[in-house]
Design a protein that fits this description.
The protein is of the alpha+beta class. It is 47% helix and 16% strand. A hairpin with a 5-residue loop joins strand 8 and strand 9. It starts with a helix and ends in a 13-residue tail after the last strand.
C-alpha cells in the first residue's frame, strides 16, 4: 500500500477512535454526567426547562438533547456517551480539514494528531457534557465561516446558512462556545470585502434571532450563584498550568511541540503563512481566556480547563501554521512521533485508562465488600446518596446498615457517636468523596487509631480503621513545648501564661486574644501539594468557648491566599471537662500556593474566654495523590 496523506489521516482517526473507545462500555459516569441525567427525569418539556435547565449554569442545548436521547435509547453509560465520543472522533477530521484549508496538509495532519491523542480531548470525548460537543460545533462553525471569507463568490448563502446553524448550536451548547461564535463572526469583518458586509450582517442577525428563545434562560442563569461556590479564582500562572495540562505535564510532549515550532522556520520551501493568519488564530485562543480570566477575578469565577476546549484547537494553527507542506514520508514521521509520545504519556504518565475506568462513587459501594470480610465492622459513607443508590443496585450491594455522615451533625455530636460505636465494633469502614469534613477522620482515629487499608481514587477514597495495631499514616511536624526555650517555628509565647509541672499548659484568658503561633514554610512540613496538614489542640475548658477558634493562615509573597477557622464549640460541650480535643485541617490541594508559602496555626480567643491549652501540635499525612488526577499533575 502506497504511503499517502490520506492513509496517514486514516491512522490518526483510527488512533483517536481506539483511545476513545477502549473499554468504552466500562467507562463510568462522572459527577457532572450524573447531575445532568438526574435533571432529565421530568414528565414534560416545561418542567425540564424550569427545573432541569434554569437552575444549572449551562444553556439548554445539551440538556434538552439528553432528555430526548435518554427517553429513546436509555441511560446506560455507553449509550449516553456514544454521541459525544463520535463527535470527538469527527472533530479530528474537521481539524484536519481546517488546517489544510488555511495552511496545508502537513499542518492539518499535525494538528489532527494532537487532537486525536491528548488527554484533554480524549477525556471530554467520553464525557456526556457540553464540551466536546462544543468543540465539534465550533470547528464546523469555523469551517463554514472559512468558506464564507475565503470563497465569498461560491455558495455564499448556503455556507451562510450552515454557519448560522452551527453558530446557533454553539450558542445553545455553552456560554463560552457562544462567546467564540461571536468572536469568529466579528473576525469576518476583517477578512470579507466590504461589498459583502450587508449579507454578512444579515447572517449575524439570523444567529441572534435563532437565539432569542433562549434569552430568558440566559438572563435567569446570570442571577444564579454559579460555580464560585466550589471553583477558585484563577492564579497568575493559570495559563501556564493549562498549557502544561494540555501537553500532559510532560516536558517530552511539550518538547515535541516546541521542536515543531522551531523547525518550521528552517524547513524548505518556505510557508505562505502570514502574520494576519497567525494573529487570527492566536486571538481566537487568547481572547476567550483573557475574558474568562478577567471575569473570574473581578466578577465571579468561571474559568476552568473545560471552557477553553472550544478555542483550544486553534492554538495548534497558531503554533504550527508556519510549517511548510511536506512529503508524505515526512508527514508520517511527524504524526508517528506525536501519536507515540502523546499516547505513551497518556497511558503511562497520566494513567488515563486506570483512572478513567475507576469511579470513586462505585468503589465507595463496592469496597464495603472488603470491609465485610472483617468481623464487627461499622460502615460509614459520605457521598452523593442518589449516585450511591445507583451503584448499590448496579453491583447488588446491600447498604441497609450503612450510616450516612451527613446525618451526624457537628464534630462534637460525631465524637459522641463514634465513642458509642467503639464499644460495639472492632472496625470502621469509611467511604467518602473528597469533600468530606477531614476532622471526622481525626475523630475516628481517636478510637480506631490504625488503618488496615486505604484506597485512593479520583474524587474520593475508602479506608478501614481498626483498634488493632497497624502502622500509622501520619507524622508529627511540630509540638508546642512549654518546658524549653521556644523553637523557631513557635512565637507569641507570653511566659507569664505558661504553667509548668504536672498541670503544665498555656492559660488563655480575657487578657489574651492570640495563642502561641506555629509558623513555617509548607516545604518544611509537607512533601506534596496533596498532603494534609492539621493542628490538634488539647485543652481544659472553664466555661463555654463561643467565639474561640483554631485559625489557619497561608501567605505567599506577602499576601494572604487562604484563611480559615474551626470553631471550638463545634468540638467541645458547654460543661467543663478534664480535657477535650479540637482540630483544624488544611487540604492543601484546595489551596493555590507554592512550597515557599508560609502556613500559620493559632487559637483566636475572640470571645476572651478562659481555658488552658494543654497540648498544641501540628501533624501531616500523605493525601490522596489521585483526587484530581484526570486534570492535575500528580
Amino acid at each position: 500500500m502506497r504511503l499517502s496523506n490520506k492513509l496517514i489521516l486514516f491512522v490518526i482517526l483510527a488512533a483517536g477512535a481506539i483511545l476513545r473507545f477502549w473499554n468504552f462500555a466500562d467507562i463510568p459516569f462522572a459527577h457532572d454526567e450524573f447531575s445532568a441525567l438526574f435533571r432529565t427525569d421530568f414528565s414534560n418539556f416545561s418542567d425540564l426547562i424550569n427545573y432541569g435547565v434554569k437552575p444549572d449554569g449551562h444553556p439548554a442545548g445539551i440538556q434538552v438533547f439528553l432528555y430526548y436521547w435518554v427517553s429513546i435509547f436509555g441511560a446506560t453509560e455507553w449509550v449516553v456517551k456514544l454521541p459525544f465520543a463520535l463527535m470527538g472522533v469527527a472533530s479530528i477530521w474537521v481539524m484536519y480539514k481546517i488546517g489544510k484549508l488555511w495552511c496545508n496538509e502537513t499542518v492539518g495532519l499535525v494538528s489532527a494528531a494532537f487532537i486525536a491523542s491528548l488527554q484533554y480531548t480524549v477525556l471530554y470525548s467520553v464525557t456526556a457534557r457540553p464540551y466536546i460537543s462544543g468543540m465539534f460545533f465550533s470547528l464546523w462553525m469555523v469551517w463554514y465561516w472559512s468558506q464564507l471569507v475565503k470563497k465569498p463568490t461560491l455558495r455564499f448563502w448556503k455556507n451562510g446558512l450552515l454557519f448560522v446553524l452551527f453558530s446557533a448550536l454553539c450558542a445553545y451548547n455553552h456560554h463560552f462556545s457562544l462567546l467564540f461564535a461571536a468572536l469568529v463572526w466579528v473576525s469576518g469583518l476583517f477578512f470579507l470585502p466590504k461589498k459583502y458586509w450587508l449579507k454578512y450582517v444579515l447572517i449575524g442577525l439570523a444567529v441572534f434571532i435563532v437565539y432569542i428563545p433562549h434569552l430568558s434562560i440566559f438572563f435567569h442563569q446570570l442571577g444564579n450563584k454559579g460555580v464560585e461556590g466550589w471553583l477558585a479564582k484563577p492564579e497568575s500562572d493559570w495559563l501556564w498550568t493549562y498549557i502544561r495540562y494540555i501537553f500532559h505535564y510532560s516536558w517530552v510532549v511539550l518538547g515535541v511541540a516546541v521542536a515543531l515550532v522551531i523547525s518550521g522556520f528552517f524547513l524548505k520551501p518556505k510557508s505562505d503563512f502570514s502574520l494576519k493568519k497567525f494573529g487570527l488564530f492566536a486571538l481566537w485562543f487568547i481572547l476567550p481566556f483573557a475574558i474568562g480570566y478577567y471575569y473570574s477575578v473581578h466578577v465571579s469565577a468561571v474559568l476552568q480547563y473545560s471552557v477553553l476546549i472550544f478555542t483550544f484547537p486553534f492554538l495548534f494553527l497558531a503554533l504550527f501554521g508556519h510549517l511548510p507542506q511536506q512529503k508524505s514520508g515526512v508527514n508520517a514521521i511527524l504524526v508517528g512521533v506525536i501519536l507515540a509520545v502523546s499516547g505513551f504519556t497518556l497511558i503511562k504518565d497520566r494513567l488515563h485508562f486506570s483512572l478513567l475506568h475507576s469511579s470513586h462513587y462505585e468503589h465507595i459501594v463496592v469496597d464495603t465488600r472488603i470491609a465485610d470480610q472483617q468481623d464487627s465492622t461499622l460502615k460509614l459513607i459520605d457521598s452523593h446518596r442518589k449516585i450511591t443508590a445507583y451503584y448499590s443496585v448496579k453491583n447488588e450491594v446491600n447498604l441497609e446498615n450503612v450510616v450516612w455522615l451527613d446525618s451526624l451533625g457537628t464534630e462534637r455530636e460525631f465524637r459522641v457517636f463514634i465513642q458509642e460505636q467503639a464499644e460495639k465494633y472492632k472496625h470502621i469502614y469509611l467511604g467518602a468523596w473528597a469533600s468530606i469534613n477531614p476532622n471526622y477522620v481525626h475523630i475516628i482515629k481517636e478510637y480506631f487509631p490504625y488503618v488496615l487499608f486505604q484506597n485512593d481514587y479520583v474524587g474520593g477514597s475508602t479506608s478501614l480503621f481498626t483498634k488493632e495495631h497497624k502502622p500509622a499514616f501520619s507524622a508529627r511536624v511540630s509540638r508546642l513545648d512549654l518546658t524549653q526555650e521556644a523553637t523557631p517555628e513557635w512565637s507569641n509565647i507570653d511566659s507569664s501564661h505558661v504553667f509548668q509541672g504536672l498541670l503544665s499548659g498555656y492559660l488563655m484568658d480575657s487578657t489574651l486574644e492570640w495563642s502561641p503561633v506555629y509558623s513555617s514554610t509548607l516545604s518544611a512540613s509537607t512533601v506534596h501539594s496533596n498532603d494534609v496538614l492539621w493542628a490538634t489542640v488539647m485543652l481544659k475548658t472553664m466555661n463555654s468557648l463561643d467565639d474561640v477558634s483554631i485559625v489557619a493562615v497561608v501567605e505567599e509573597d506577602g499576601e494572604v491566599v487562604h484563611w480559615s477557622n474551626a470553631e471550638l464549640n463545634r468540638f467541645i460541650g458547654n460543661s467543663p471537662q478534664d480535657h477535650e480535643i479540637a482540630y483544624h485541617t488544611l487540604l492543601l490541594n484546595n489551596i493555590a500556593c507554592g512550597p515557599s508559602a508560609q502556613v500559620k496555626f493559632f487559637v483566636w480567643n475572640k470571645g476572651k474566654k478562659t481555658f488552658k491549652i494543654s497540648e498544641f501540635w501540628i501533624n501531616v499525612k500523605q493525601g490522596n495523590r489521585l483526587v484530581y488526577g484526570l486534570t492535575d499533575e500528580f
